[in-house]
């Protein structure tokens, strides 16, 4: 049995350019050979698999050499039934199909009446992959929801796999989301997918959409090496997050996850590098719900989930070297209002954040005066909040009108506002009103249509639209055009005003059209 795959891919990028992703499937495969008790091929045998949760069935027949293959099979647990004239029927339970992996369903039939059924029950043993040389690991829904996962991003579970390390400062630049190295390659060499479609940040790579919804995903598949050319792009790993779908039974969840500093301890880095003696205070509350089930049994299913995440930390400290109230008054007396616009702007800002006491005197010489005036300066400190609010939505519909046709539609969205992201690391950000708030939106739409043209030919068409929009801007939008930064060249006085790097942001839309034809000969 040989399998030919013809792949046509078209990716359109608006406002940005990125490498095109080739046809990466979010579905699995079932293949094998049917023989008799003497290992002779059984041609024309009927092979039927049925998803035990949805009742959706697929069927094919064996070829002259007894081989068969079912392509584009939705991940899940299946029951297989194999029948041929002159042989007892065979049934196998718990056939596990995972994304991008081939489940082996090779079966030996016994001579007898087809009405007699020989049932084989499969356990949870690990199955050796013999169909190809890919090194694949699959993290299932139970692992995603029950293992402690940092940030609820299931991709963080890659650190439990062999060959995966956290490169830390040696990475050569951060990526969006989880940063990891596979087989010694840079984190930017990884290819991030969701439901088989591209989910890469077009600027710094990593995950454009952060999959942090606790009950939103059925599995994560990691292709570590030796994957086929159809995946393209990645020199590192291919990470494919599969969204959850509905089944024949109504199911749902309501949850509330709280993480806080009450039982936390200082890390070695916080002690040695930051010099902390007390654990920073924080509280993170993540709550949501999910619901899924049938609209029409064995045919039409829905799934949806909503999650809100509220992160609150202790006050963030920031300091600035500025005049005292007396010093600001002396500067104003030296240069009256309107004579020096730069000083007018400087005083308008520092008057909201003056030093409580002087610890140095800075000589300032005003135009037209013979001597310098010593102005008292000091250190002003303030505590400011840094809340992060995140809302996530996922909705999915799966429809199988016939045994030959299946359609899927999925939409997901992430809305986040990171308030006061740079309170002390960007010059000028210490002053009230100049806090940089970062709102961001990432959303993705996915549609797929699979058609079984014949027992040996399958066509899978997919369309995807990903959008990402993030803005770094001052909390007071009027400050975006309020003038340049002002620096007094003494080497110690803090710069005031909005940094020249703000406002800035990134916005892109990525459209993907993929069509894969698979023919077995």
Overall description:
There is one protein chain. The protein is mainly beta and 521 residues long. It is built from four helices and 28 strands. It has helices spanning 141-146, 268-272, 325-334, 341-350; strands at 3-14, 28-35, 46-51, 57-61, 67-73, 76-83, 89-97, 102-104, 107-108, 117-121, 135-140, 164-165, 181-182, 191-194, 197-198, 217-225, 238-243, 251-260, 282-296, 300-313, 316-323, 360-364, 373-384, 388-402, 405-418, 436-454, 457-474, 504-520. A hairpin with a 3-residue loop joins β19 (282-296) and β20 (300-313). It is elongated and about 115 Å long. Residues 9-23 have low confidence and may be disordered.
Short description:
It contains 4 helices and 28 strands. It is mainly beta. The strands form 6 sheets. The protein has a 9-stranded antiparallel sheet, with no helix packed on it. It has a 5-stranded mixed sheet with strand order 4-3-6-7-10, with no helix packed on it. A 5-stranded mixed sheet has the order 11-16-17-14-15.
| Unreliable parts | 9-23
Strand content: over 45%
Tell me, briefly, the overall form.
elongated
Residue-averaged pLDDT, rounded? Answer: 85
CA radius of gyration is 30 Å
Please provide the count of β strands: 28
Considering DSSP H and I runs of 4 or more, what fraction of the residues is helical? Answer: under 10%
Cα-to-Cα separation, first versus last residue: 6 Å
> How many H/I helical runs?
4
Q: Describe the largest sheet.
A: 9 strands, antiparallel
**Order of neighbouring strands in the sheet with most strands:** 1-28-27-26-25-24-20-19-18
Structural class: mainly beta
């Amino acid at each position: 049995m040989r399998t030919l795959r013809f792949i046509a891919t078209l990716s359109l990028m608006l406002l940005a350019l990125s490498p095109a992703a080739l046809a990466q499937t979010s579905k699995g495969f079932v293949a094998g050979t049917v023989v008799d008790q003497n290992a002779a091929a059984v041609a024309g045998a009927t092979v039927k698999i049925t998803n035990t949760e949805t009742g959706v069935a697929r069927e094919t027949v064996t070829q002259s050499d007894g081989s068969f293959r079912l392509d584009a099979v939705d991940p899940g647990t299946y029951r297989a039934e194999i029948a041929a004239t002159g042989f007892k029927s065979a049934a196998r339970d718990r056939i596990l199909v995972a994304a991008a992996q081939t489940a082996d369903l090779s079966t030996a039939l016994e001579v007898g009446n087809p009405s007699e059924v020989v049932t084989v029950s499969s356990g949870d043993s690990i199955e050796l992959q013999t169909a190809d040389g890919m090194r694949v690991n699959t993290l299932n829904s139970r692992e995603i929801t029950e293992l402690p996962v940092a940030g609820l991003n299931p991709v963080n579970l890659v650190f439990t796999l062999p060959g995966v390390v956290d490169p830390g400062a040696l990475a050569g630049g951060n990526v969006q989301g989880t940063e990891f190295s596979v087989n010694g390659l840079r984190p930017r060499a990884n290819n991030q997918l969701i439901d088989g479609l591209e989910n890469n940040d077009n600027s710094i790579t990593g995950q454009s959409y952060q999959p942090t919804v606790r009950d939103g995903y059925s599995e994560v598949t990691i292709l570590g090496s030796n994957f086929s050319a159809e995946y393209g792009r990645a020199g590192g790993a291919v990470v494919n997050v599969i969204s959850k779908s509905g089944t024949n039974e109504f199911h749902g969840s309501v949850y509330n996850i709280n993480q806080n500093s009450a039982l936390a301890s200082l890390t070695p880095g916080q002690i040695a590098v930051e010099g902390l003696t007390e654990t920073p205070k924080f509280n993170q509350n993540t709550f949501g719900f999910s619901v899924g089930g049938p609209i029409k049994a064995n045919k039409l299913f829905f799934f949806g989930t909503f999650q809100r995440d509220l992160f609150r930390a202790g006050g963030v400290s920031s300091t600035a070297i500025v005049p005292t109230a007396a010093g600001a008054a002396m500067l104003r007396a030296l240069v009256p209002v309107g004579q020096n616009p730069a000083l007018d702007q400087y005083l308008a800002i520092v008057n909201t954040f003056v030093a409580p006491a002087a610890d140095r005197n800075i000589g300032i010489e005003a135009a037209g005066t013979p001597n310098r005036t010593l102005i008292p300066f000091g250190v002003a400190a303030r505590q400011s909040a840094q809340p992060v609010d995140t809302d996530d939505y996922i909705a999915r519909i799966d429809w199988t009108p016939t045994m030959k046709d299946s359609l899927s539609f999925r939409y997901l969205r992430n809305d986040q506002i990171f308030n006061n992201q740079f309170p002390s690391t960007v010059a000028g950000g210490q002053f009230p009103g100049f806090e940089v708030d970062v709102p961001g939106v990432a959303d993705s739409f996915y549609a797929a249509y699979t058609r079984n043209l014949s027992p040996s030919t399958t066509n899978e068409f997919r369309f995807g639209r990903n959008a990402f929009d993030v803005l770094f801007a001052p909390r007071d939008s009027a400050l975006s055009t309020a003038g340049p930064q002002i620096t007094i060249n003494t080497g110690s006085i803090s710069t005031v005003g909005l940094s020249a790097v703000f406002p800035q942001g990134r916005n892109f839309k990525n459209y993907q059209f993929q069509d894969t034809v698979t023919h077995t000969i």
